[in-house]
Fold each of these.
Amino acid sequence: MKQRKKQPVQTRSAILEAAGSEFSRKGYSGAGLGPIVASAGLTKGALFHHYPDKRSLAVAWATDSLAAAMESLWLTPLGGVASLDAFRSLSRARCMELQPDDATSTLVAITAETAAADPVLAAALDAVFSAWKSAISSLLERGKAAGWIHRSIQPEAEAAFYVAVFSGFTVTTKASPGESVRRTCATALEAYLETLRAQ
Amino acid sequence: MKQRKKQPVQTRSAILEAAGSEFSRKGYSGAGLGPIVASAGLTKGALFHHYPDKRSLAVAWATDSLAAAMESLWLTPLGGVASLDAFRSLSRARCMELQPDDATSTLVAITAETAAADPVLAAALDAVFSAWKSAISSLLERGKAAGWIHRSIQPEAEAAFYVAVFSGFTVTTKASPGESVRRTCATALEAYLETLRAQ
């Protein structure tokens, strides 16, 4: 334990990693602090030293770990998209590889479960959604400027729509898992994206 | 209690109503059987007589109460839609009146929380999603036959897409409540529906 105490950054990182795994598999209410500390190799006292309660742990996880995971999964690749075909390909890939415990699915599930009842957690989760939406909105702005997105398209509205579509996919594919559902989702999403193309 | 015992249908109905209220506000893991029996005016023994555990209660609630609520909210109105403009109006109305504890939001939240880990509950929830999708698919088929939906549209794929979009809205509007977000969602949804119109 002594070594852990001298490495607060590593300790917090181990806690947040364990918390993320627990939240993604069991949701917010279902997540136990016991399994989290056990998985991080700590005591509850050490956990409470860093995060006084489950809510502050969830806020830190959303702000740090979840935001970083969404950046790798979405923001960075979206920043490199330079054509509608590339956006279609990325969207299809994200659909086909969707997993019930990945960053997008976990963001959606924890938000659906908690955001209406907890404004503080809602604000932390909304910041993650906002970064995702902004990356898409910027992509659509770039596409309009470069001439591969139709000039009548409103980037912010379409970005909000895209994020809602994909968020919905994370839920409907849980109810009905299997590759054929994902393929239908991916195809419908590509058909929608095609409506944004410059004529 | 004697009278309740003689009215099993009313007792089950009172339990499912109380369960629905609890699930919609607290999710599945967060829902307490104590508050449910208190709200239904019963003992835990009476609850367990009808539903041996929380999962069987949730399955019955999804199959009966939630399915009936989705029928009133979606299936019946969708059955009466006879033009793209009427479909747009209904979609906008459902967006604008979206509440974090209504039937659609609760279906999505409970599915996001539980479906990946519980195949039995997932099947009950998937049946509710399927009925919703079928109603939209039928509407699009009718529209194709009547000439107000474009003949190239694939009703099942677009129905799955519509359900995902709306499911996503229930989550993103929780993260970011307020009328302006709903209005953006409604406008983007109408713009998408316009892409289905027969030219």
Note: Chain A touches chain B through 51 residues (CB under 8 Å).
Amino acid sequence: MKLKKNYLLSPGPTPVPPEVASAGAWPLIHHRTPQFQNIIKEVAQGLKYLFQTQHPVYFAACSGTGVMEAAVTNLMSPGEVMIVAEGGKFGERWSKIGAAFGCQVVPIKIEYGRGVTPEQVEAALKKNPGAKAVFTQLSETSTGCVFDIEAIGKVVAKTPALFVVDGISGLGAEVCYPDRWGVDCVLTGSQKGVMLPPGLGFISLSSKGWAACEKSKSPRFYFDLRAYKKALDKNDTPYTPAISLLFQLAEALKIIQKETIEGMWARHAWLGEATRSAVKALHLELFAERPGNVLTSVKTPAGVDGEKLVKEMRDDLGVTIAGGQEEMKGKVFRIAHLGYMDRFDILIAIGALETALKRQNFAMKLGAGVAAAQEILWQDPQR
Amino acid sequence: MKLKKNYLLSPGPTPVPPEVASAGAWPLIHHRTPQFQNIIKEVAQGLKYLFQTQHPVYFAACSGTGVMEAAVTNLMSPGEVMIVAEGGKFGERWSKIGAAFGCQVVPIKIEYGRGVTPEQVEAALKKNPGAKAVFTQLSETSTGCVFDIEAIGKVVAKTPALFVVDGISGLGAEVCYPDRWGVDCVLTGSQKGVMLPPGLGFISLSSKGWAACEKSKSPRFYFDLRAYKKALDKNDTPYTPAISLLFQLAEALKIIQKETIEGMWARHAWLGEATRSAVKALHLELFAERPGNVLTSVKTPAGVDGEKLVKEMRDDLGVTIAGGQEEMKGKVFRIAHLGYMDRFDILIAIGALETALKRQNFAMKLGAGVAAAQEILWQDPQR
């Protein structure tokens, strides 16, 4: 069988740097020891930097959905109104979690691929003056659309409502200043910009968020942030932490701090621009109205089988991108430029895409995409 | 600085076999692919074997406490009565979770170190004929006491109540036949007998347990087992799984199936017997009334500083055992013989214990412990 390498270009999981990967195999140490407390202290500091916040960032063994639940149960009480920007699968997840915990969900329905506008949020807040919180995404992974968190924050700040941002795919890739932008809760998962395997969730609350947390009447235990706060104040965790993932987190945060957060943002913007340029050179159409630094979602062109395209890229070429989720299946495909990726990952993605399109006899000039990418990639913004 | 190796002899985390450790560093693959579905299929099969159940075993990214919460919210509705065998810190955790979700908790208070008796459970069930469920531990990690699940199961089976067993430290080390013994819910964590790093929780329900799950009115989302069932039926997971920990799980389950579950139980019993024999030869007193295969808890003898003992063993000798938790701090210490351990780990534990006791001028014959252990260890039950 022909040798084939595997390339992970999906918006989570993302590739893991070798230093981080190998830390996943380190011998465990016990978590209730001064030795482990030092690791907690180190990652707590690094997480504040990654989040660009002055507030503590708590971490739990869970997927991103776990910390989304934490945001809902720690901020909302049953019966309270939550306004949700429903611009895709992950916006819809906010609504499902809210409904499961008895909140009154007021969705702002947005066409897939479009972002929520500050005006829409303003109108929803006006119509629901008692709303407890507004829930959005920084980047809606299912469509590739980035939301204007800064502008929405200004609108929410005029009301008593809390502002909650799911940064699961966006954090580290998109500019985000939660403290400055009036974000009361921001969260992310480990398998995206943080460059770790999945299994850790991270969440931070503003002072206003904490006040709500203390008063929330939602039932909660594993995700009760009051327990995480009490523990982290002593460099501890309330339950056995995912020790090997925390070893890996410490390594990843070193890499992140070395590149700097501004450097990360610039790199992701650069890779995103190159990808979009390549896609356009292949006469393909972008799906997201406001595409971001995280991933590029592309409309499957007429005459091409989108599911087959993704499958062939993965199984024949070794290049894993993502297809569309649920209703979007086959209609879009999504190329990530997220986490541990550099310029050559873009060449791989576009090279594989051209090959797979050509096999389906899509009318295109082979090489046009990679050439267009090179035009952007030859100049490095961080040089 | 003198070379010193580190030995993990605590009841979680436990040492990880090298094959399992290295799988934690493998390159990630995407979780929504046929390639990953094969891994899910494989671990689902292996988990049924480990659990000795015909029912599916679900897994989530979380610590053991996460699946304890899953047991409570999926089986109980607010206001319903749960009987809890409170024999230590983990029994108390059942009560705390129940209270957080609005259940009426009826604790059976047991002196630390003692086990709950079938008679006590029977009396509690008689006094609370409407009780929805009885919650116990297979092994109460904080005291080292093993509960007689088979006998308790017989008592619970005479009533409509569900029987829930936290097997977090016990599963794989103590004989347990959930289907035969009338257990409706059994759960465990990854960092104990399963020989993985922490970060995965496992839970299985009987048919009666599933019927309760379908009817439960407790709010839940991340730990809603209905979503896990729907996904696992298609070899999938509802949220992004902890991919690297699942790679490791597949490796660990291979080792477990090679040794056989009966072999695991026999090995743990043998190591436990050797440890107890050594402890007695040093004229130390066991703490647990019904000590098990998981760990040996020992009363700190008069004149010895228990916290200093544990600290010196860890920091000077490189041997991590566990001290007592909360009220038991300093009063007991706990030596695990759990997971990836063989006869020589017992010699290490006892050798380090003798050294640390001697340093505190405890009256003892140096070598008496290791010699007593050897009397048991020289013969291998699996040979």
Note: Chain A has a mean pLDDT of 97.
